[in-house]
Amino acid sequence: MQVGGPVNEMSSTDQENQDASLLRSLEKAILRIARGPDRFKREIPLLLRRSIDEVIDSARTDRVTLDETEKTEKTYLGTKVEVLLRNFLGYPKGKILDLSMDGTEVDIKNTMRGNWMIPSEAVGHPCILVKIAEESALFSFGLFVARRESLSSGTNKDGKNSISKAGRGRIHWIVKDGAYPRNFWQDLSPEERKAITTLKSGSKRVEALFRRVQMKPISRTVVLGAARQKDAMKRLRKNGGARDSLARDEIALLSGHFDSKLIEGMGLPKCEKDEFISFTPTNEADKAILRGAGKIG
Description:
Layout: H1 12-33, H2 37-56, H3 58-61, H4 71-89, E1 99-101, E2 104-111, E3 117-118, E4 126-133, E5 138-145, E6 151-155, E7 161-163, H5 165-168, E8 172-179, H6 190-197, H7 202-212, E9 218-219, H8 220-227, H9 242-248, E10 252-255, H10 260-265, E11 275-279, H11 284-292
Helix pairs in contact: 2-4, 6-7, 7-9
């Protein structure tokens, strides 16, 4: 895969065909690395959620939504996506652009708005375009060759061009408006959020989290954000952790890593290995199983 700047003697049709062929090759390489389109569609949403959560940094900042971050941090989100995506693909950083895919320099652009800003050094090169909409938890992932005729005539203060309306029609989408995991805190009412996050101790916040939000997988990242302590996961354990208090009230706290069979047997939503779920059993058969497993008192 090799691509350079615009070639003057090439007709527009030939150029479009060459670009389309290049984008198909890039897509094939990306999906091969991801071990197929299904895994790609599973892993990229998780990568984006991780990127956003690491920028919010709840465990150290007491923030829980992207809206609470500074403007510069929202800009940094693009860098975070770039770093995690490069790591996921396993390609090195390019000499000029963000990625070198088998010798082809590729730029990675992320936006939370409606367009992407393309720097002058990326003109004539392919770009990976990522769009994140945190409110709706939808993302798009596409490929695009940044030709001058596909960019707006005006530049911003950094000398970057946006993609024109005609250029947006030339984006090759791998995923268009796909779902990624929602921000857990965003789905709680302000009252529920306050009732959890304003408690003084980490153990009490974690306990309130699993007491108030049941039958829903909760990620390790969310637990860390609620606890806001270095030894946050200790707040989940027995012998002084939230699990003891919950168990006394017959609320079971289960781990996706250690309790997957119990979770499935109780008919609860599937949990990933780094997720937890709590629920209050309503029948004696379930209570007996959970008591036998040491999950409730």
